Amino acid sequence: MLNQINLEDIISIAIKAGKNVLKIYNKDFKIIYKDDNSPLSEADLISNEIICKELVKFNIPILSEENKTISYEQRKDWEYFWCIDPIDGTKEFINKNGEFTINIALIYKDTPVLGVVHAPALNLLYSSKKGEGAFKNGIKLPLQRNDDFLKIVASKSHLNNQTKDFIDNIKTTKQKEFVSMGSSLKLCLVASNEADTYPRLAPTMEWDTAAADAIVREAGKMTYDFYTKKPLVYNKENLLNPYFIVE
Question: Which of these, 170, 175, 176, lies nearest to 245 by C-alpha position?
């Protein structure tokens, strides 16, 4: 199945969604709140509609943050499925700092094998397909770096005391440099070698990480369960991710 999917086609879908999202981003937009009180903009819904409409032609199941819940009984035997977050970083979108992304991943059983992360407001596009490499705006990852810092990336919206304690306890002879970024771009910073580690000691869902995780893995890095040290897995009965670290 994977070899029948052209990565450029998925990139085009993300770019199409991004262009439509930017039309809303650049004007006043409506915000509603979901049952869990998390914000949802009209851009989430439009992006979701565009992506799902384009992906349906592949005849592969779709798991999206904005679609209705699919029971584990329905999805536990899926061989392949799309895992999408139409807008990751809704708070960043609402705050208009540009650090939101459109995430499209293809999962094989429990492992991300294709990923596209598009940040339209920043003109950034990360992509990967298993066996074909990972890229940032067409440049192969990981990038070369010429500094002696240990760069640690963490969330602007979710930096908690547990994460601060973890960062303080990292033993290194290098000087620590803190890099703050929104949405799934945090994983992409490690994938690109612009950061060394990303500890996430706060809740995330599978669709928050799947696309960027595919890019991380194809760039030669890994996203590990913080406690078991095993690679993150997907299509779990509970779609909540464990705490994790990318390095």
Answer: 170
